Amino acid sequence: MAELIASPEFRGQFMALSRLRWQTLFNSLRSTRGSLELFSRVFIGLLYAVFGVGGAFGLGAAAAYFASQGKVEFLAFLFWPVFLFWQLFPVMATAFAEGITSSHLLRFPLTFPSFFFISVTYGLLDPITLVSELWLAGIAIGVGVVRPSLFAATALILFLFAIFNILLSRMLFAWIERWLAQRRTREIMGVIFFLLLLSAQFIGPLIAHYNERSSRQIGLVVSQISPVQRVLPPGATAAAIAQISSGQWLAALAYTAGLCGYVLATGWLLAIRLRAEYGGEKLSESAPRVKIHTGVRKLQKGWDVFGLPAPLAAIFEKEIRYIARSGPLLFTMIVPLVMLLLFRLGPGKLGSLGPHMAHTADLAFPIGAGYVLLLLTNISYNALGGDGSGVQFFFAAPVEFRTVIFGKNLAYTAITLLQIFVIWLAVCFLYYPPSLSILFTTIAALLFAWPIEFSAANLLSLYSPKRVEYGAFGRQRPPQTTALASIVIHAVIFGVIALVVFATRMVGKFWIAALVFLLLAALALPLYLFILKRMDGISSDRREDLISELSRVRV
Amino acid sequence: MQDAAILTRGLTRSFGSFVAVQEVNLRVTSGQFFGFLGPNGAGKSTTIKMLTGLLAPTAGQIEILGVDLATNPVAVKRQIGVVPEGMALFGRLTGAEYLNFVGRMYGLDRDLTAKRAAELLEFMELASEPKKLITDYSHGMQKKLALAAAVIHGPKVLFLDEPFEGVDAVASNTLKAMLQRMITRGATIFLTSHVLEIVERLCTHIAIIHQGQLVAEGSIDELRAGVEAQIAANATGEKLTLEQIFLQIVGGTRAVEQELSWLS
Question: pTM above 0.95?
């Protein structure tokens, strides 16, 4: 590695790529939209900074407390959440990690070590990595304040732990992208997930069984789990520091060596994927090449979608086909199910929120549905992003732009409805059917959220477009203007929903909530229709920006 | 006088202070195979984008088949087919799905679209791999598909921006055969291309744009006569090729004398 970094050729290449990234960013900020993007970046950056620094203080304080009480091995309680956040959050959100598109690098005379190093370091400044690193720094400082003699060793071991996490997140993204890229591997993943869902039925009673045990017995279970977690990276990290603190140098060395082993193994697995990319691998969705007979043959006709006019049906079909062929988008759609599963395995019974939300199922369904709505933003807030230069066709075709947008809205709505139905089934399967009042109130709340969501989504799709590749997992952050707007819009929507729910609960008339949501939906619908009507004018005014932005090749 | 399929008056497009196209007046009569030439950055693509509704003119008027593009864009778009720069394909569809999509966007019914799509795929030699996504097509296959999509609804006017760019001789032959069929059935074709040999062979009329302004227009013989009159001494007596005419008009005949330090 040192030899690589010392190489003048590599340093030149690395600097050139860094400069390219900087210049691309700088040039993109020149326009009015760029200024808005800069503002959004700064604002979101501040939010992350607060999250990161706040977390670092909290974790640092906890670490200091454990160190002061001589319970250094309890640091594992801090490392596990950091580890899970670092690894799971980007995968669940699918859009927070940045990576480089290998095809842009391969034309240059890069050696594999250079390619590997650049691929790993690119996106090292993404928010999740920075926040997680801040938290680890907080823990190291917390330990160092109470036990200064332990600071250097803690910092060194946490540095190893950070490298492991960086490599692991890159490795997970690379392999998930590989598995999602083709139908066959995607189906295998789907089956595994389905089996996992089924297994939850058997794990549930187990959790219930332990819930009834006394705290002494639970302590026994924890002590049984402890040696297992100690051989896993977060546990090994804590154990290494704990052994140093108690002067057990040999054991500390063993745990540190174990951690190094994890780093090497993860790096090796990542290298396998990157080696394939370096060799020019192209993951294709197409079926294997099968030559068929010549001569005009009958083609399958386009879809007839509930008697919709031809252009609307065509757009609906195109959108559904696009999403069905995008592994990453399909993955996004099962994330709410994963969350439900974690819910089931985690808290078990979430506790009572009063007579109308007495059961976990009553809470799981609205939360699952809300999560579906949140994830919808991945596609709806940048509805033209996946079309790339194909957007020109919409301007050249004899179709009003509002029809294009409405067709996309219909397709996304159909997918959302399907997802919500699946969530309902999963809730019924994992728990039991949610009560009718919760079901109706959730549906009414969704009806209220729908017009607002799509009004915002349609405007942002035209005002803040960004070309995205539906086949790439992660590696493409949304425009920060869209991200910021999304935060504000969802804060308003979920804020209003929460307000209505709690107000009606306070007066003891929860059934009113559904009526209020229906009334709000009736008020929001004209807003949606008004904005939809404006789509023709806005798209006409913005067609040059849209075409140039969406036809642009991403660097 | 024959009807004008394409008519522009004072067509102008500025980007800030830069004038990309300046007061272009074009008249393309119905049934013409019209070649629109110019060096890189001359304003060809900008003009074709304005003619097809992809770009708003800063000033001037466009009429396609007698219909004003600014006031009635949808009516114009029904009558035209376009292969724009970048081809406007949807990469994650198969060729057949894309043609089905395009046909229905132009209002054709499902049966007719499927029938035409099947014929076009066969004609363009794209039918043999029905499951292949467009993103996995070669460049030549994409060009052929883009042309198939542009003609599926039977347009009366066809706009093609660099249809032969990056296309091999075999694919080029298929494209030319398709264009000849369109001309035979009375369509008007407006084409930009850097492949001057093909333009010379296909086009009946030529216009040359240079630095945003129309600098020559007419049949190839008319342009040739104009250039020969200017240079007077055509010593060999051979007919000037379109390339020679083009270079003469846009001033591209200067000798490249500058040396490159590392290639000397």
Answer: no
